[in-house]
Amino acid sequence: MLPKMTLLPFLLEPQTRNLKENMPCHRPVSLLRQSLGWVVSLLLSLLVQATALAQDRILEKAYWTDTTGTASFEQARMASYTPYTGVLSKGFSNNVQWVRLKIDGVPAQEASTLVLRIRPVYLDRISLFDPAQSTLSSALRVTGDLTTWRSNEFESLHHTFQIPALAAPREVWLRLTTNSTQLLHVEALTPRDMLHEEHGLWLLYSAMLALILTFLTWVFLAWLGDRDPVNGIFVLRQIVLLLYTASYLGYHRILMAGLLEPPAQDFFYNTLVVLTTALSVFFEYRFLREYVMPMWGRWLFRALLLVSGVAMSLLIMGVTRQALSLNMLLNALGLVSILVVACRVRLPKPDQAQADSYQLPKSAVVSYYLLIIAVLALSILPSLGLLQGTMLSIYGVLLYGLISGLFMTTLLIVRSRQIESIRIAVANSLFLSREQLAIEQKRRQDQTQLLSMLMHELKTPLAVIDMAVSTRSPDARTSDYVNRAVNNIKGILDRCIQTDRMVEREFKLQSQTLDLSSQLQQWLQDRHDKHERITSSIVPGLVLCSDLQCLQIIANNLIDNAFKHGDAQAKVQVSLSAQPGDDGRPGLLLSVSNCPGPSGWPDADKLFAKYYRSTSAQRQSGTGLGLYLSHKLAAQLGGELRYQHDAQHIRFELWLPT
Q1: pLDDT bucket at 388, cuts 50 / 70 / 90
Q2: Cβ neighbours around 505 below 10 Å, total
Q3: Cβ distance 376 to 81 under 8 Å?
């Protein structure tokens, strides 16, 4: 198990998304594959560049395990060693590991010293025993993360020793004690090769940190837009992961050199290890909660989080090795547990899913976890001491963490866009529902107003008819009352029908070319009983293309309105002339004006409102629909009905294009 390393932070969940019809689902997958290829190619090229010219001067490596931890150098020197290659992998252990290195001879003209570079950085204490320097005061030297960074014998992020370069091969010994897993990789390089590799590794490490910071920024910006909890937890985990990665690579020893002593730096790093695992478990839990998770799965995640809390408590109490061992066990069990839970979750039913959420297909989630487990096994098994280690054991977690980070970041952004699309659709649906509700409420209000108006306006005519029926010997005067009452009822019903047919429903205009001057003269002549009250000024021969029925309704409504509400002793003035519109288009202007009567002056702001009648106008029979209907019909004809007045006259003007 990787000691001061955590694996779960790199299980960056696959939140794959099927984009909407304007972005096919295969497109993000294709882009993701290309991006992963670019990242892998970049990192591998940097790694190859960093190591291509370096020549490791170690000929043989062998180890001996001191189970007592008390062996002296002379005892260790005489012990029986076991050869190994690559990275020493002994897992968590209280034992002391002795490593014997056989160093190749180096010509004097090539280099006078060699640099032993030791990785990873989290190893606590490494002691060097070099018989070639036994006569010097520096026969025993120590490095590790419990020593200061400035104590490095060669300036590097890693632990280093400098030893003399001899012409003949020789042996040196290292003694390793650590609370972390016992992974140890040692190289012997000339100073020139060391500088070349360090520059390459600095570039590689900078690229890793830049990518992690880029992933963090992308998802943070997405979270600012949608406030998605999954994105928010990912951002928090990525912040800790960024600190963890920087510390894993050794930057914390440089940045904190003047602030904290090495033991405090070590505690800070160990805290990041445990905290990153805890946040990773919580992130996995929150992600899988987007699905329908079995109850035992919830309890399993809670148990994992409890174990993480115990590991943090042990670390605070100073039981470091047990805390890190438990944390690594949590990483191993967490991988299997997450896969098991992922296999048991199911997509929510449509009626159970939240309106602004989106879940990946279950097969995609399970496939991703299987892939991650297969890949990370190459790092987990050497950390447990079950497999011979390689460089992948040290850097594999970071490499695959970056790949998973890119994968997860891309899919989280796709997920955020998909959720935003869902939210927009929901908002549109809600808006349409509210609009429909408002329309329905308006319709009910109109029905209520219509019934109220009918009850009020029909009451008087019906009372007149009832009185006439009750009269035993009706005379001409009574018959006249009855006729007017019936006409009032017919007028009320006609306006209601016209309004419903021509305004409230879809109405198709029947346009035709007509002589409006002749038609208006005819409509005025049809008013035999009131013809003497009309003064007209009609320019002959004015022709336009319009709907005859609509024009007749508007003209009759305006003239009726003038007769009904105007001064009974004054003339009603009707005029028709050619007049261009405000925009310069040619047109006709029909004007009807009268002097105010008992109804007084109308309210200009409410005049064309449905069912509007002024208080004084309610003394006479009416619907409040005439001007409303006329105003709507004028708009349908492409014209405009407007109210104008001067000191003595109320005037309505109808302008129509020709």
Answers
A1: confident
A2: 8
A3: no
Token pair of 268, please?
């800070």
Using CA atoms, how far residue 67 sits from 51, 76, 440, in Å, is: 35, 12, 85
Burial 433-458 (b: 16+ CB within 10 A, else e): eeeeeeeeeeeeeeeeebeebeeebb
Cα gap 209→40, rounded to integer Å: 15
List the beta bridge partners of residue 172.
101
Strands 125-129 and 159-164: unpaired
What does the block give as tokens for 314? 């042990």
| CA 381 from centroid of its chain's CA atoms | 38
Q: Enumerate residues 6+ apart whose C-beta is below 8 A from 131.
A: 170, 171, 172
Give CA separation, 199 vs 160, 193, 196, 226, in Å.
15, 10, 5, 41
Q: Which residues pair with 117 in a beta bridge?
A: 160, 187
pTM: predicted TM-score of the whole model, two decimal places: 0.62
CB 228 within 8 A of CB 222: yes
Q: Could you check whether the bond before residue 120 is cis, i.e. omega within 30 degrees of 0? A: yes
Exposure string over 22-45, b if 16+ CB within 10 A, otherwise e: eeeeeebbeebeebbeebeeebee
Tokens encoding 293: 């998770």
C-alpha 594/C-alpha 645 separation (Å) is 10
Measure the CA–CA gap between 397 and 383, rounded to whole angstroms: 11
Whole-angstrom distance, CA of residue 650 vs CA of residue 643: 8
Q: Which two tokens stand for residue 57?
A: 């001067």
Q: Say how far apart CA 16 and CA 361 lie, in whole Å.
A: 8
Rg over alpha carbons for the chain, rounded to the nearest Å, is: 46
Classify 61 as helix, strand or coil.
Answer: strand
Neighbours of 78 (CB within 10 A): 10
CA 105 centroid distance within chain: 61
Average pLDDT rounded to a whole number, residues 351-364: 61
Specify the 3-state DSSP secondary structure of 124.
coil
Q: How many residues does the chain have?
A: 658
Q: Which residues contact 562 (CB under 8 A, 6 or more apart)?
A: 572, 592, 593, 594, 650
* 190 vs 51: CA distance, rounded Å: 13
One-letter amino acid at 599 equals S
Side chain identity at 170, as an amino acid letter?
R
411-434, pLDDT tens digit by residue? Answer: 666 766 777 777 788 788 888 888
